[in-house]
């Protein structure tokens, strides 16, 4: 068995935290793990991608284009930008909450309609799952827990090889003590939103 | 998971694994100038070196980092100098002669190369430094191997009395894999230098002899390479693949049915092992990123051994010389060997997507200084020389304040050249850490040769781009050592520069005035833009956020704020401009340039 998750988003959204939670859970489950991360520019508002691969005899830190089993899209435009990482059978989890690039904020470029973005992905695959992770996070406490919502949602993805309880356990070990309760609720809310 | 634990395992970033390797090898002295993809090594050592009984420093440039570690190794202390690939260019001068002197305690020189130039200005293949300096070299393929090979590399270094070049790439430094923790080695923290002029004083008479010594040591190194466990054959068959570094992982997982010679000890090459491997094969493919370093030597080894087995790779046109490899690269070999089927990618979305390049942060003081400079310049014909750091992002609109970029400290030097060879006014931007790295030299030369340039030192009180390391301008306070900041203005004035002014870039109008005077000055002018990086303040919990608000009743929709500062916290919705409270830090740059005083800065 080999499983690849491509996690895409914007620096500061928690892409690295999510990849660390999934990767640690995979290690605990007894899998080999190989990951690749974007460092350096992550705090400068750029587009970021983290590759997580686990299973038997996994050693390459990168996956082939189209080779992802799951694309975890933290941001709608970024999900569309990295669509080619997946194939017809890839599950695509897409957070609908946009982060506006600086050139959009300054009015030099336009941010496309979210419906258009969703429509474009839907026209290419039947395996799209959308959620508004920020809204779900706010409903259980705070917007910052959106990444815990996303991780909870992953646990509900059909065929995802790691157990829900394990993901939650690792998430709660990694987040600071004072936000454990919030992250626990956000994780469950993300899971329920998808199942 | 803590990398200092005695046993167990962890899911480590390559750079964390390297630190663990240093701990297990009993390294007692380390030095660097920060550079991605090696930066995290320094950030971790800053935290843990004291506890581990290791001396660690951020030297003011890579040359000095190499020199201090060389001295420690000459005194018998295991040392580690690390840098990004272009940093080794800066350190190349001591490296070449250090090879002649050699070391007493083990020494590794880590070069973190960056194929695909993720965060660099070029893609140079530093493996050639091993050939140039005649030093042994190791290339790990994964984080786990990057840790394991360090202990071995120190043993090789001490056996040969030579420093070892330890060459990684971004996909090793920034990959993450499971690393098993081994025991620590106990080595002395203090050494004693024993005088040996013939080795350590390379005057011509001794240098000539040391070249002979170095060539002899290379023969010994080659024997070690021949029997190294890091040069190994996996699998069998009549087709062969020779590979090193991260490329090995792509070969291993995405191709099959070949015999693979994995090389980890890559200078000197195990020539006999390679010849024996090739002999009898139908053909051999060489898979390595960037230049045909292994491949060209393999052609030579074949010629010397009378082997006529076809060698495929870069010279045959099968594999590229540019950019990093990936599993996709293996597809190019499918006419030669079995390559795993790769699924057809989804077609791209049919919606125009906005770009998302890395950008200067909200409230970044560089924005204010670029805005002030652009206004002071007006219609004047100028050349903006820039340098390595966050401010290289001044390339982007609306600033477009980057016309010429080559290397660390290169902007100030180049500005002098433009001044003397054109009628354009040359302006050089340089960061504080970069200034201490290699800006003092060109400024001295500028004064000496009467270059009429304006050097703008963007002093944000940290080495921001690489992850906020201290620099001489901030002083250090870690590892039990506290030093005072070096005052940049005093230093510059001390050189004899007559025009030295310090501005607050958040006061864009005042900074513009000073820049106008600097541009008029008949000689070398220096403007220091002094304001701490907000990210660094945030990290130290010192950032006081005072959100700005646009008073819509006063706003005349001229958009001067957006056009001159272009802060990500200013959001244009149709004709109105609002501030984004989640991003705004209340620096007030936008308020400063607003002609109607329509932006209020909170308290």
Give structural notes.
The complex is a heterodimer of chains A (195) and B (603). Chain A is of the alpha/beta class and 195 residues long. Chain A has a single domain, classed as Pyruvate-ferredoxin Oxidoreductase, domain 3. Helix content of chain A is 39%, strand content 18%. Chain A contains eight helices and six strands. Chain A has helices at 15-28, 76-81, 102-105, 114-122, 133-140, 146-155, 164-174, 180-194, and strands at residues 2-10, 32-36, 47-55, 70-73, 91-95, 128-131. Chain A has a six-stranded mixed β-sheet with strand order 2-3-1-4-5-6, sandwiched between helices. The radius of gyration of chain A is 16 Å and the shape is globular. The model of chain A has no long low-confidence stretch (mean pLDDT 94). Chain B has four domains: 9-226, 3-Layer(aba) Sandwich (Rossmann fold); 231-338, Rossmann fold, CATH 3.40.50.920; 365-539, Rossmann fold (3-Layer(aba) Sandwich); 548-601, Alpha-Beta Plaits (2-Layer Sandwich), CATH 3.30.70.20. The longest helix of chain B is centred in the middle third of the chain and has 23 residues, at 204-226. Chain B is globular, with a radius of gyration of 27 Å. The two termini of chain B are 42 Å apart. The interface between A and B is large, with 64 and 62 residues.
